[in-house]
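HUMAN: Quick job: go over this next protein and say how the chain folds.
***
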Amino acid sequence: MIHVEQLTKHYTQGKNVVRALDGVSLGIEKGEFIAVVGRSGSGKTTMLDALGLLLRPTGGRIVVDGTDTTRLSDDRKARLRVDKIGFIFQEYNLLPTLNAIENVMLPLQYARHPKGDREWARTLLAEVGLAERMRHRPDQLSGGEQQRVAIARSLVNRPSLVLGDEPTGAVDTETSDQLAAIMRRMNVQHGVTFVIVTHDIDLAAKADRIIRLKDGKVVADETAALEAVAV
């Protein structure tokens, strides 16, 4: 599904070069649930942004379903994002003037050939436990409920890949556990690949695979439980 080959991303700070990604290579298969862990500054978010085609790498390749994205124009990358990738953000990124179902349906406005509709949005909200809250605006929802809306939104255009940047980072432990269970269930039920950057050990422990970054490099890529891995 996705092949990353010798991916680099360097930034210049004065006379110094910061190697945010330094030769990352990995493959991501359809239906996997992957947790990316590592200390702050390890390159986690940069890698997620690269996978989401939100930044241009300094070097290397990202191949999505046989397409070398490093050769695409910005317009074609934007189209690929809309068609194939959903996003879950730590701070939810819901529009305050729209209710839950309107927020979920928002990505459909940007798709040339929407693969979802209002009934599908209702189904997703019901699956994340918000069947009775569809008409509520973000300021009428708890933090956990807002993130459930964000999870439903990430799936509304039936993407093949969902990327999450600390999706449980802004909620309490109990809510975090609930959100982790919801994402894992959506992964299994809908066959969507999830790649989640997280400091949440409980969320990472639910993953099929754990990728650990340090100083922009992959230092571990394993399917074992995370209990002994510091994040």
About this structure: The chain has a mean pLDDT of 91. The chain has seven helices and ten strands. The first helix runs from residue 44 to 51. The longest strand covers residues 16-28.
